[in-house]
Amino acid sequence: MIKVLIADDQALIRESLQIVLASHADIDVVGVVADGQEVLEKIPQLHPDVILMDIRMPVMDGVLCTKEIKERFPHIKIIILTTFDDDEFIFSALKYGASGYLLKGVSTEELYRAIQTVNQGGAMINPDIASKVVQLFSQMVQANFTIAIQEDWTEELSLTEWKIIQQIGFGESNKEIAAHLFLSEGTVRNYISGILAKLSLRDRTQLAIWAVQTGLTQRKLLKERDQ
């Protein structure tokens, strides 16, 4: 059972999301709140696995709340609910470790899949904003938001792992990576866990930023890398 907490300052949206998600047997909506401060107050009581977080809320917005949650409860997964004009907010949410970025108005099936994906440790980016997210990675690099990795750590990476890192840098989901590399989604998840451990990174967002800042997304990977 996936325990979900919904945070949105609009009562209609909160109630609609609650009704939609309650129809799935493997999801338990443990609470609904109206701002980020309420989220932080409810976490010790409700112990959510995944939080659906509106990005624009009073008292404490979704970005600052994401930062606080990942510092205090790093195991909790966060899906940001956003709009096309929220570039600055998305930029910050990326830095602080959100696992998903969905446009408001996403289909109920896509929302359900997103919750399942991030709960399993993956990331979910709405296809309509995937290219924007990749651009934001580039902006973060230019703004000197750098991810430092010791060079000798990369020597342990296989060709397949390099290819997976590159696809993550493109903003691809586990399902898309699996299709491109002819692997199962489970295998991709296992590879990503291994990559994060080898490079001592917190999550795939940091991995994606590193892929962009090192120019990996601009390179053609050759078989010689494994030799």
UniProtKB/TrEMBL annotation:
The modification 4-aspartylphosphate is found at D54. Keywords: DNA-binding, Phosphoprotein, Transcription, Transcription regulation. GO terms for biological process: phosphorelay signal transduction system; regulation of DNA-templated transcription. It holds the Pfam family GerE. Residues 3-119 form the Response regulatory domain. One of its GO terms (molecular function) is DNA binding. Residues 150-215 form the HTH luxR-type domain. This is Response regulator transcription factor. It comes from Streptococcus danieliae. The lineage of its organism: Bacteria, Bacillati, Bacillota, Bacilli, Lactobacillales.
